[in-house]
Design goal:
The chain has 283 residues and is of the alpha/beta class. The protein has ten helices and 13 strands. Helix content is 32%, strand content 23%.
Length: 283
């Protein structure tokens, strides 16, 4: 029986999520580990944080594959009294490699946004922002619901598909508005708020919408039409991708045991005082 090494998942992840399709600012691929290290178990998670690193080490994983890069922004020390230094030294001592697949895993069929589109039942979903080298893939998705919903019904559909979080699903718009065309982007979505395909949709589903960009988009919609907004927890939207990613990797690497972490790495623990907002109108 052939013994697999870390070089094998590196090749597999590159074939599935080519680094060249990542955004220029992104940091994807191998973070720590060596090619000739034996590979028997791989844990997948959205984030490399203390809880998922501990889970990987305690399970005896040889690699941890995460969606979010641990080293997206530069660090200048691996001192163990720093957050990232502690995580990296724990992984290195346990001989557990770390691999990140971020914006390169957002783009393809079976990627983060594509999985969300399939889960909510979008027909004819296409990328909002296609890749120049392959227009069949790219950032976000836009398509038509197989069954139209009211905005409230659509938000409830989304809430039922996502794991529970403290922030739940936030909605801006008339709850009775009919939703047919949906634009979506897994993860933070401010960057596409002004995209023509987003503006033409009935609703834009994404995460981390900031106050001013969201407010400006809604004000523009009041003048010239535009989408309702549905904002979900960042971690929750991207967690849906993990199961399919593990299945694809298992097909490419038979004999390796893959596990998807069930740990919630959304940073918020609870909320208080949430109440329905009042309509935006002049007094």
């Amino acid at each position: 029986m052939t013994t697999l090494t870390l070089a094998d998942p590196r090749r597999a992840t590159e074939a599935m999520w080519p680094a060249e399709t990542a955004e220029s600012w992104d940091r994807v691929g191998l973070v720590t580990g060596r090619n000739d290290a034996p590979l028997r178990r791989v844990l997948l998670a959205v984030d490399a944080v203390a809880s998922t690193v501990d889970e990987a080490v305690q399970w005896g994983a040889d690699a941890l594959i995460t969606h979010h890069p641990l080293l997206l922004r530069g660090i200048h020390t691996l001192a163990e009294d720093t957050g990232k230094g502690s995580l990296l030294t724990t992984l290195i001592r346990a001989e557990c490699a770390l691999i990140a697949a971020h914006t390169n895993a957002d783009q393809p069929v079976g990627g983060v946004s594509d999985v969300i589109a399939k889960r909510i039942g979008l027909d004819g979903a296409v990328p909002i922002s296609p890749l120049a080298q392959d227009p069949s893939i790219g950032s976000g998705r836009v398509g038509t619901l197989t069954t139209p919903h009211s905005l409230r019904g659509f938000a409830e559909l989304v809430a039922g598909l996502l794991p529970e979080t403290a922030s739940g699903v936030r909605v801006a718009g008339d709850p009775d508005r009919v939703i047919e065309t949906v634009a979506l982007l897994g993860g933070a979505g401010d960057s596409l708020l002004d995209h023509p395909l987003v503006r033409a949709a009935d609703v834009y589903l994404t995460s981390d919408l900031r106050h001013h960009p969201a407010q400006e988009a809604l004000e523009l919609s009041a003048v010239s039409g535009g989408p309702a907004l549905v904002d979900v927890a960042h971690w929750a939207s991207e967690s849906l991708w993990l199961d399919g990613a593990a299945e694809q990797l298992a097909l490419r690497l038979p004999g390796v045991e893959f596990r998807v972490s069930q740990i919630r790495t959304d940073p918020w623990d609870f909320s208080v005082g949430a109440r329905p907002g009042t309509a935006r109108s002049a007094e």
